[in-house]
Amino acid sequence: MTEDSIWRTVIAGRRATALERRWQNLCALYLPHAPRGSLWRYHRVSSRGTPACGWKLHVSASILNAATTLMRIGPVLAERGVQFKAPRSLIDVMHLNSGLHHRYSQIGKIVTVYPRSATEAVELAQILNRLTRCLAAPSVPFDQRFSRHGNVYYRFGAFRQLEMILTSGERVAAVRGPGGTLEPDIRERTRPDWAQDPFAGKARSQTCRTADPVPFRALRAVVQRGKGGVYQAIDFRDKSPRLCLLKEGRLSGETSWDGRDGAWRVRHEERVLLHLAAAGVSVPKVYSAFELQGNYYLAMEFIAGETLLHALQKLQRRIPISRVLHFGVQLANLFAQIHRAGWAWRDCKPKNIMVTPEGRLVPIDFEGAAPLNKPDHLLWGTEGFTPPEYFDILDGAAADRYALGAMLYLLLTGRIYDHSQPVSVSKLRKNVPLAVRDLVEVLLDVSPAKRPSARASAARMTSILLQSSLRPSLKAVKAA
After folding, report:
1. pLDDT of residue 418 exceeding 60
2. Which helix (H) or strand (E) holds 205?
3. CATH (one of 3.40.50.1000, 3.30.200.20, 3.40.50.300, 3.40.47.10) for 216-301
């Protein structure tokens, strides 16, 4: 790792520590109530006069400016005697904004305010908007934004925990309607039909000019999370429309400790894909890229087939060893090509590998890829496919070789490898050739220097496949 990368790692760590300390000090001052086991800390006042439901305000923030946000609005809310809450730590802020650890609808809901009336809600929205509008923050899904340039959002919902039982027997959150009856509190809508919006016309900057039309039409969302979405779409730029994959990088989405957001990640992936394609690596083709309202979009080739994860989930029995090695050779050759092009993938896992109808493996998702000569100082990857040295400064190519071993282990045993409690392949599956077991073991070695190169691993697996005992199976695999 270069001296510059090491220094940036240190700076990011110091920034995270300093920001967390500041957040905890502010929480102790403005949010002293911290129930055990709760995600939230509260500023609680007397519940007298507080309705059971009403207009909630959500103030969005990133991990970088959550403390600044709380410092600006905490005194105002406390002085007015309004109930509000915020996450107990900045790690929880990060988890909320990812859309993965909690519901997607929770993204951006960092400070939740419970006004006592619609009039107070509008007054507070105007004040909080003025205090926070210059801070970069993610959008809150489904909520109505109070001002186009602000971080204040609103929706009508329950203030206290109310539940109702649907005809299906499912228990869901509820609000009480005008007649006193309960109805579902649907987070994917701003308000029930009977609730009149008191904010309408209060923020003059809400309207914005219509964006220029783009020649892509999304058909369905494949993935939705804080940093952006992935959509199956149609590219209408040519006379013959074609299917494509449209990847969205959201402005201020899942901002990291060094300021990189979803838009940065997708721009970075575009650069990586173009570099790899120029080097002859079989990655999805880049069709086009454009920016819309600060978000960055990348249109790519749509790869027909299914992810390796989906293929594995459908299996009724274990994959034949010959087929495991056939996949392994392809993966090792892909890694060798990626490394030869000067990059580390850093996120090899079944979900990021497409299996075409012909049995070809195509790698996808290169947001976390890093140049081999300039390793990324931020952690990236998925548990089970990242090496023991994950939290140390590491060699990206060595981490990829570990991921190759973890993939082979999964394909052979049906289990994800746990380096803290290692179980050998031989204990989980009989009749695996010794040469295969040895290769998996050395790829998963705790010492990065002992892991063979991707090219050497491909050669070893090819040699094993050519043995007479596996040759018939190999022919069947090639014919499939």
Report:
1. yes
2. none
3. 3.30.200.20
Tracing tokens 């190169």 back to the chain, one arrives at 453
- Asked if 232 and 218 touch (Cβ cutoff 8 Å), the reply is yes
User: Measured between alpha carbons, how far is 409 from 20 in angstroms, rounded to an integer?
Assistant: 38
**Is 444 within 8 Å of 402 (Cβ atoms)?**
yes
Domain spanning 306-479: CATH 1.10.510.10: yes
Q: What are phi and psi of 154, to 5 degrees?
A: -145, 155
Residue located via tokens 């050669």: 459
Are 109 and 141 spatial neighbours (Cβ–Cβ below 8 Å)? no
Q: Return d(Cα 459, Cα 54) in angstroms, integer.
A: 66
CA atoms of 280 and 264, how far apart (whole Å): 25
Class of domain 3-205: alpha beta
Q: What is the pLDDT of residues 173-218, one digit of tens each?
A: 888 888 888 888 888 889 998 999 999 887 655 444 555 678 999 9
* pLDDT tens profile 122-149: 999 999 999 999 899 999 999 999 998 8
Average pLDDT of span 432-461: 96
Question: What is the rounded distance in angstroms from the CA atom of residue 228 to the CA atom of residue 264?
Answer: 11
Stretch(es) of the chain classified as CATH 1.10.510.10: 306-479
Output b/e per residue, 387-401; b: 16+ Cβ within 10 A: bebeeeebbbbbbbb
pLDDT value of position 478 = 44
Query: What's residue 97's pLDDT?
Result: 97
Residues of the chain with CATH 3.30.200.20: 216-301
pTM of the model: 0.86
Tell me how far apart the terminal alpha carbons of the chain are, to the nearest angstrom.
Answer: 43
Residue 60 structure tokens: 């969005």
Tell me the C-alpha to C-alpha distance, in Å, between residue 92 and each of 40, 105, 227, 299. 9, 15, 16, 32
Above 80 in pLDDT, residue 362?
yes
d(CA 438, CA 461): 11
Q: What is the pLDDT of residues 292-350, one digit of tens each?
A: 989 999 999 999 999 999 999 998 888 999 999 999 999 999 999 999 999 999 999 99
CB atoms within 10 A of CB 49: 9
Q: Find residue 220's DSSP bridge partners.
A: 232
Which residues is 295 bridged to in the sheet?
Answer: 292
Band (pLDDT 50/70/90 cuts) for residue 469 is low
> Which of 271, 393, 278, 290 lies closest to 7 in space, CA to CA?
393
